[in-house]
Amino acid sequence: MPSEVVVPPKPVPTGPEAPRESDSQRVRTARLIAIVTGLLGLLLALATPFLPVKQEAASIDWPQGGTVNSVSSPLISYSPTSLDISIPCSTFDQLGERGGTLLSTMPNGAPDRNARGLTVRTTADRLEALT
Question: Start and end of every Arabinosyltransferas concanavalin like domain (predicted)?
């Protein structure tokens, strides 16, 4: 007779009878995930002001090349906090008797162009600045 008795290992149950993770283990895992993601969110929020941001101020020099031509500049903000405009007298002379628009912050044909933007124009006998 053998002195040792060999017992085969029990098979690990699968399916509905498989052992489930205990409630305390699930709570511990959820708490750990919440703490890690919360700390990561806090770290990223604190790092946001130090992100590299480069913004260049846009400016326009006009008239260019000594001629009065239309200039489109989508880089200029729509609501400036301040605006400093100087129009040389020679540009008035270039328009001559026919007159025309010297400066407009709104495109031609825009609805309420004179009510929503700044327009400087000349007629045959006067200069108008409309805001």
Answer: 54-129
Contact by Cβ (8 Å): 113, 119 = yes
Record the pTM: 0.40
Token reading at 79? 């609501």
Residue 107's pLDDT band (cuts 50, 70, 90): confident
Q: In a 3-state reduction of DSSP, which class is residue 21?
A: coil
Mean pLDDT of 3-8: 74
Q: What is the number of other CB atoms lying within 10 angstroms of the CB of residue 130? A: 12
3-state secondary structure of 108: coil
Task: Round to whole Å and give the CA distance between 15 and 128.
Answer: 86
Instruction: Please state whether the peptide bond connecting residue 88 to the residue before it is cis, i.e. omega within 30 degrees of 0.
Output: no
Cα distances (Å, whole numbers) of residue 56 to 59, 75, 76, 77, 105: 10, 10, 11, 12, 20
